[in-house]
Design brief:
The protein has about 160 residues and is mainly alpha-helical. About 80% of the residues lie in helices and about 0% in strands. GO terms for molecular function: ferric iron binding; ferroxidase activity; heme binding.
Length: about 160
């Protein structure tokens, strides 16, 4: 099945975002683990797995539509401490949310409802789980202070 060229381009642009999110979560989870923040490292590792699933779904759809997946991720923004890690991960998620909405609108315009339906759970996951959770963590840091937050993230 040959997909619409604009949709294939848009899916590839989403793919490089998802790959960047995956890689950024990967390095952040390993940094947090090294720092002894195992609870936070585990959650960020879970986010990496979710992003891998999103990338997999995009790759499968691109291939089905006759395209070639672009496997080079966008540049990473690696944090240097917990607040900057959470902020940079949130920035990626917010960018992906906006991008997903744009691609879903394109799918609607081109009447590719199957692709739109594949993207909808990604939008829900990105907006309701990933971005919301990151915003909560940053809010918690503000409420309980960074040292107390860090202490809460040391145990699994």
């Amino acid at each position: 099945m040959q997909g619409h060229p604009a949709i294939l381009d848009a899916l590839n642009a989403l793919l490089v975002d998802e790959l960047a999110a995956r890689d950024q979560y990967f390095i952040h989870s390993r940094m947090l683990s090294e720092w002894g923040l195992t609870k936070l490292a585990d959650r960020i590792g879970h986010e990496m797995e979710d992003e891998t699933g999103h990338a997999d779904a995009l790759i499968r759809r691109i291939l089905m539509l006759g395209g070639t997946p672009r496997m080079t991720p966008n540049a990473l923004d690696v944090g240097h401490d917990v607040p900057s890690i959470l902020q940079s991960d949130l920035a990626v998620e917010l960018r992906v949310v906006q991008h997903l909405r744009e691609v879903m609108a394109l799918c609607e315009a081109e009447r590719d409802y199957v692709t739109r339906d594949i993207l909808l759970p990604m939008l829900d996951d990105t907006e309701q789980d990933h971005a919301h959770w990151l915003e909560q963590q940053l809010r918690l840091i503000g409420l309980v202070t960074l040292p107390n937050y860090l202490q809460s993230q040391m145990a699994s």
